[in-house]
Every structure is written in structure tokens, then in C-alpha cells.
Amino acid sequence: MAKVWFVGAGPGDPELITLKAQKLIAQADAILYAGSLVSKAATQWAKPGCNIADSKGMTLEEITGWLIKQSTADATVIRLQTGDPSLYGALIEMVQPLDKAGIGIGVVPGVTSAMASAAAAVETLTLPEVTQTVIFTRVEGRTPMPPGESLVELGQHHCTLCLYLSITLLKKVREDLLTAGWQDDSPIVVVHKASWPDEQKIIHGTLANIKELCKQAGINSQSMIIASPTLGSRQWSEIKKSKLYDAQFSHRFRKASNTQE
Ligand code: SAH
């Protein structure tokens, strides 16, 4: 049966692709990559003669048409997506026409840009007794937010927020988080092109000044906004430590030192 693989290429650095993705790319007969976001370097393992095309100027119908055309019985066909295919990747829109055409589907996960951004900035997204929750979301732009998911509502949890697709909406981010009870001096980190060799930029600011700092740095695309009460905790003099490594705390693999004979 013909099969199309939706493969997460990771955030940009070709070394952040999974081994499974790399193997599939090496076997592929045809690769359609999202050229505006996926580094061409991700196709470096393709075999000679592999049909590699950029979907940058294509409509959804053209993309699915291309994938269907390449999907002969024993061909390995890949749709290479930025980050992880399940996040803001139009996955189901592409899968449905392939389902209709009787083509099999496989998905290979990828490192999403929120994770690459946290890594670039050496930040943790969870911290004991500060926040234990991360929300992946976006600010309402042309795509309306479903009920209950506005930033004003989500912000009220005061947990970590990773905002995709929102770098041009920093004014709204500030207004909404202020309405949700955040302070103007809340730390915000913006990572532009996280993990892209030579292109990554990290901007540390606050809710009040992050828009201006991004403007000064010329950042207006491909950026992750992280708002979190954990930001900057590397510099805190006191943090609540994880129970996992606490000598007083037993778990499946280690007995607490005070109960050991
Ligand atoms: N599926 C992708 C997200 C696609 S939506 C993923 O899992 O990462 C595109 C948005 O992702 C961009 O607007 C930006 O917010 C974010 N993004 C993608 N690559 C990025 C990178 N290298 N650095 C920072 N943000 C990135």
C-alpha cells in the first residue's frame, strides 16, 4: 500500500531531527518540504535522484496533489514539517484527502519550537511550587480562538505559556496578560529561529518592554514567546527542589536516606 510520512523536521538545527526521520529521509523517493520554515539542510541525507520539492508557493490542494502523485505502491514519500507535525501543522487537512485516495499515513514526531526555545535560553518550563503546567497556545489573529481559550482566560492560570504564531501580536499579548492579572514586570523571553545555526536570537524582557526590544532587534517572524513565572530562575538564590532527587524522599528506584538501614 502506498504511504505518505508526515515527518517532524524539528526546529531548524538539522541535528535536532530524530534518527527515525533521518532514516526515512535517506530512503525517500520524494520529499515535499515546507521551505519557508524547514531548513533545506534537513534534506541533506536524501539519496541521489530523490525528488525534492519546496511547498512554499503551493496551496493545500497542490500539496496533497503532489503527495498523491508521488505515492506509487512502493515509494517512500515524505511531507517534511517544521517542529512537530501535530502542532499548527495543517496535518488533518492534508491527511483527509490522502485517506480518501486510499493512501496510508505515518507520522514521525519532531522537537517542537517551544522545547528548542526553552533549551536555547536555558530556561525550565516547570519548577516545583512555581508552576507545573505548560500551555501551548497562540494569540487570536486571523484564526479565531475557540471559547475558553483566549489569552485572558488561559493567562489566569499563571502557568507557563508558549505562544506560537504570535510575534506580531505582542501588543495584544501584553493587554491580555495584564487583564489576566500579570504584572508589567513579568519576565518574557522571545526566541527567534531557535536552534538555527547563526540565526538564533534570544531576547529577554518584560511584559512592558518586550515589544520594543523585539522591534529594536528586527524580530517579526518565526519566534516563540515564552511567558512564565519560572523565567530567570537560574539566577534565583532559592528554589524549591524537585522531590525526585530529595534525600528524604523515597521512590521506586531509591529509598529515602532516613529510612535506609
Ligand atoms: N509545528 C511547528 C509550529 C508551526 S507554526 C512546531 O512544532 O514548532 C509556526 C510557528 O512556530 C512560528 O510562528 C513560531 O511561533 C514557531 N516556530 C517555528 N520554528 C521556530 C523556531 N525555530 N524558533 C522559534 N519559533 C519557531
Characterise the protein shown here:
The protein has 261 residues and is of the alpha/beta class. The protein has seven helices and ten strands. The protein has a five-stranded parallel β-sheet, with helices on both faces. Strands 6-7-10-8-9 form a five-stranded mixed β-sheet, with helices on both faces. Helix 2 crosses helix 3. The longest helix has 11 residues, at 60-70. The structure holds S-adenosyl-L-homocysteine. S-adenosyl-L-homocysteine binds next to helix 4 and strand 10.
Quick recap of the structure?
With 261 residues, this protein is of the alpha/beta class. 23% of the residues lie in helices and 20% in strands.
Secondary structure elements and their pairing?
Elements (H helix, E strand, L loop, with lengths): L2 E6 L10 H9 L2 E4 L17 E4 L5 H11 L5 E6 L9 H10 L3 E5 L4 H8 L13 E5 L12 H5 L4 E5 L5 H10 L7 E6 L8 E6 L3 H7 L6 E5 L34
Helix pairs in contact: 2-3
This protein binds S-adenosyl-L-homocysteine.
How much helix, percentage-wise, in residues?
10-25%
Strand content: 15-25%
Could you say which small molecules are bound to this protein? Answer: S-adenosyl-L-homocysteine
> Measured on Cα atoms, how large is the radius of gyration?
21 Å
SSE order, one letter for each helix or strand = EHEEHEHEHEHEHEEHE
Q: CATH topology of the largest domain, what is it called?
A: Methyltransferase, Cobalt-precorrin-4 Transmethylase, Domain 2
**Major sheet:** 5 strands, parallel
Number of strands: 10
Give, in spatial order, the strands making up the sheet with the most strands. 3-2-4-1-5
Indicate how many domains the architecture comprises: 2
The CATH architecture of the largest domain: 2-Layer Sandwich
Query: Structural class from helices and strands?
Result: alpha/beta
CATH homologous superfamily annotation of the largest domain: Tetrapyrrole methylase, C-terminal domain
Low-confidence stretches: none
- Identify the overall geometry: globular
Q: Please tally the helical runs, counting DSSP H or I stretches of 4 or more residues.
A: 7
CATH class of the largest domain: Alpha Beta
How far from one another are the termini? 61 Å
Indicate the mean pLDDT.
93
